[in-house]
């Protein structure tokens, strides 16, 4: 396609911000689909436009026209935008599954035998380090994409006094607090005459009922948090630009998750090759098979990564929505 | 006035927008300023975006990726052809009017 015009004049003409708050709010006169597609850029233009009766009339008439004559791209637009948002929420849900499964690996490798295997065998140690670095990058990516969106939802909910929407955002930290509280209660509920805290934790770790409760509460907290964040994102008033910008960190998150799953696979194979006694032993969660725990974690984290990779690819394809 | 390639005529704001974008990609405010400079017409934000939306729908312009809230637009190949057709038609009108004015009694 021919691209006429060799120059790009996009930032050179910056005017003082003369637009009033009142004029910016005139954007509510437009249809929702129109606002989602053009709202950000139109608001930026209104911010640079002096409020006069002629301008106000111009905007009002154009808004009526936008209601009466919706154009084809706008009829297609909500679908594209919703795909972008849904795919980024899928990346978040995949990451949550990834974290829940990854907790099993973290629990298993608390045992000093795994640390020793990593120290003695470079392949095991390197794979473990790659796992840690990838997990941190994925977390940072989730924060980079999610914090601006969560902040926009919170700010809008606070401004419009939508407390129920604001409370949805409080669900993840409250759920985490509840889970930490349950952990504390379970550790202290160990019915053994052991005053030493480390020993109580040891008893806890080998008590199936306690571990099952602990994992169930964490999984429930993760599911409830994911649903709450999804509902808040769907109903929240967020500038489409934030979702567009989140497509890049979403891709980074998915890439980091793929690296982590690969590192986990390499870790298991390297452990099998270098320390088979540990691999075939019962060093897994609840003193179960190390190999089975490893396979379960690979399956869980792999499923989470697959969901995130698909979501990130769709988000990237729709990032201009 | 000639018709654009899809059979629909270009209105004045649309023509001014295409003429502005012929000089390179611009966001909304830059277009308003540029059009004001070369034509003396200052488009209101509603008029500008009403025309932009329709031009985008007809594939005559397209949005350019931008980290800024102010999204730039640029001409497509089809938009460039539509603008050339429009200018040629205007040119014929201008020549005809000149001839008639030259032949009219003083």
Fold blueprint:
The complex is a heterodimer of chains A (321) and B (106).
Chain A (H helix, E strand, L loop, with lengths): L7 E2 L11 H4 L7 H16 L5 H16 L3 H37 L3 H9 L1 H38 L3 H26 L8 H9 L2 H28 L4 H35 L1 H4 L10 H28 L4
Helix pairs in contact in A: 2-4, 4-9, 4-10, 4-12, 5-6, 6-7, 6-10, 7-9, 10-12
Chain B lengths: L11 H10 L3 E2 L1 H12 L5 H13 L3 E3 L9 E3 L1 H27 L3
Helix pairs in contact in B: 1-2
Largest interface, Cβ cutoff 8 Å: A-B, 44 and 41 residues
Q: Share of helix among residues of chain B? A: 55-70%
Give the radius of gyration of chain A.
Answer: 26 Å
- Form type of chain A: elongated
In short:
By secondary structure, chain A is mainly α. Chain A has helices spanning 21-24, 32-47, 53-68, 72-108, 112-120, 122-159, 163-188, 197-205, 208-235, 240-274, 276-279, 290-317, and one strand at residues 8-9. Helix content of chain A is 78%, strand content 1%.
If you had to describe this structure to a student in words, what would you say it looks like?
The complex is a heterodimer of chains A (321) and B (106). By secondary structure, chain A is mostly helical. Chain A folds into two domains: 21-65; 82-317, no CATH class. Chain A is built from twelve helices and one strand, in the order E-H-H-H-H-H-H-H-H-H-H-H-H. In chain A, helix 4 packs antiparallel against helix 12 (290-317), helix 6 (122-159) packs across helix 7 (163-188) and helix 7 (163-188) packs antiparallel against helix 9. Chain A is elongated, with a radius of gyration of 26 Å. Chain B is mostly helical. Chain B has a single domain (12-103), classed as Orthogonal Bundle (Arc Repressor Mutant, subunit A). Chain B has four helices and three strands; from the N terminus they run αβααββα. The relative contact order of chain B is 0.19. Classes of the chains: A mainly alpha (321), B mainly alpha (106). The interface between A and B is large, with 44 and 41 residues.
